[in-house]
Every structure is written in C-alpha cells, then in structure tokens.
Design a protein that fits this description.
Elements (H helix, E strand, L loop, with lengths): L2 H54 L7 H17 L19 H4 L1 H23 L2 H22 L5
Helix pairs in contact: 1-2, 2-4, 4-5
The structure holds heme C.
The site of heme C has 22 residues, from helix 1, helix 4 and helix 5.
Length: 156
C-alpha cells in the first residue's frame, strides 16, 4: 500500500469508527430519555397513589374529584408507558426495570393492560361514591406489587 492509499484507508476507517460512535451515542441519549420519562411517569403513579391512599386510610375526607383524577392519571400512564421501553434502554440511567421486561414483553404488556383496565374501572367507581371507589382502589393497588415483583429489580 502506498502512503496516500494508506492515509486514505486510515481516514476512511477513522470516519467509519467515528460514525459508529456517533450512532451509539445518539441511541444511548434516546434510551436515557426513555428511562427518565418512564421513571417520571411512574412517579406520577406514585403521587396519585399517595393522594388516594390518604383518603383510603381515612386521613383525608373522601373527595370524588381527587379520587377520579388520580385514577385518570394512572390510567393514562398505564395506556402509554409501553412506548418508553425501547430495546436499547435495558440498562443505564439508574433504571430498576428488570431484563424480564424485554424477555417477556407480552407478559409485561398484559400486566400494563390489566393496570389500565383496573384504573379504567376505578374512574367509573370514583363517580359512584366512596364505597365503590374503595373497592376499586384496592384492586388498583394490587397491580403495583404484582408488576414490580416480576418486572422490576430493586437497586435502591
Ligand atoms: C405493569 C407494570 C407496572 C405496574 C402495574 C406498576 N409499575 Fe411502577 N414501575 C414499573 C417498572 C418497570 C418500574 C421501573 C422503571 C425504571 O426504573 O426503568 C417502576 C418504577 C416505579 C417507581 C420508581 C420510579 C423511579 O423514580 O425510579 C415508583 C414510585 C412506582 N413504580 C410506583 C408504582 C405504583 C404506586 C404502582 C401502582 C399503583 C405501580 N408503580 C404500578 C412497572 C410497573
């Protein structure tokens, strides 16, 4: 190989490698965003449970509006959060998502569908008064533990 040829080769190779790094960087930034987004959405679910839990425990008087709003917020997350688990977001960003999500995406989506159904029923139940809401709330609350046990690893 002549010097010019060699230089050209080295240049192309460097360009190719730089391109690979750029592609990797872009995907990982998107993956980081997906992780941050799904965490924020789960925090909204946590906040909704907190607002409702105080009413369920009688620490706060039942308010149908608050009860319904919390169910709606959780229902919206249940219906949309599946888009925040792209294949390249299995690790990083302090995620506590378990690898099982990607090994068993069908099961994970079924758990989300159940969460959506239970919170959907909760929206209607909140309109029906305290007793009907409380029963629905109990069912909604079971989703947290059951999904977290299967699809989440505790890291902190
Ligand atoms: C269908 C599965 C599923 C259901 C149902 C579910 N979660 Fe989660 N939740 C997850 C996953 C997966 C994570 C981990 C997200 C990550 O770190 O990538 C998580 C994380 C969280 C977090 C931590 C967010 C953070 O900042 O890291 C909170 C809080 C939370 N969930 C609350 C709840 C509550 C409360 C409920 C029930 C009302 C609930 N979740 C129902 C799957 C679920």
């Amino acid at each position: 190989m002549g010097t010019t040829k060699l230089l050209k080769f080295a240049y192309l190779k460097t360009g190719f490698i730089a391109g690979l790094f750029a592609a990797f960087f872009v995907t990982s930034v998107q993956a980081q965003d997906a992780i941050a987004d799904r965490k924020a959405m789960m925090q909204a679910v946590g906040a909704s449970m907190k607002a409702s839990g105080a009413m369920a425990k009688g620490q706060k008087p039942f308010d149908a509006g608050t009860a319904e709003l919390a169910m709606r917020a959780m229902n919206a997350v249940a219906l949309g959060i599946d888009s925040k688990f792209p294949a390249d977001s299995k690790t990083g960003g302090k995620t506590t998502s378990a690898p099982k999500i990607w090994e068993d995406m069908g099961g994970f989506k079924a758990a989300l569908a159940k969460f959506a159904a239970d919170t959907g029923a909760g929206i209607e139940a909140a309109k029906g008064g305290e007793a009907s809401w409380k029963a629905a709330f109990g069912k909604v609350a079971q989703n947290c533990k059951s999904c977290h046990q299967s699809y989440r690893v505790k890291k902190n």
